[in-house]
Fold this protein.
Amino acid sequence: MISLSELSKQLSEPSKPFDSWQPNHCGELPIVINHEGKWFYDGSEITRPAMVKLFASVLCKEGEQFYLKTPVEKITITVDDAPFIIVDWRFENTVQGQVLCCIDNLARQWLVSAQQPLVIKDYKGSKVPYLKLPYGCSARVARSVFYQWAEKAESDKLGYFIKSAGKQFYLS
């Protein structure tokens, strides 16, 4: 059986060394990621998945601002809510127990763990779970996924939760 850290390495894409990149801020691009996780350039949707994945690979959030960041430039973009949406999921068995594996709208896979926890935020007047991702980014859990989790959730005096990597992550 595979360990949690080995599974995480298998699922993750090569990480960018954002912390070592200190480029100058070069202004703003008319790129918007809307509340559905769709990317737009100057009002037109970017429909090439490879282009969106390339931009997503250099997306980070510093403070309250999102940037496309490379070793030589840092450009501000607009994100309406979370840049990504969790659209599917499954459980993976590891040495440490079951781990919730979330799949985002770009088909990337993320493990729910202490390093990438679920957090509850307000979205359009409702409390909704978001998955914290590296470099300040997050992914909002789609309503359909939330309802599937609700069917599997356990409860205690604090509310409903789902277990992953030996920890409880509350859904409300």
Q: What stands out?
A: The longest strand covers residues 84-94. The mean pLDDT is 91. Helices lie at 4-11, 49-57, 143-152. The radius of gyration is 17 Å.
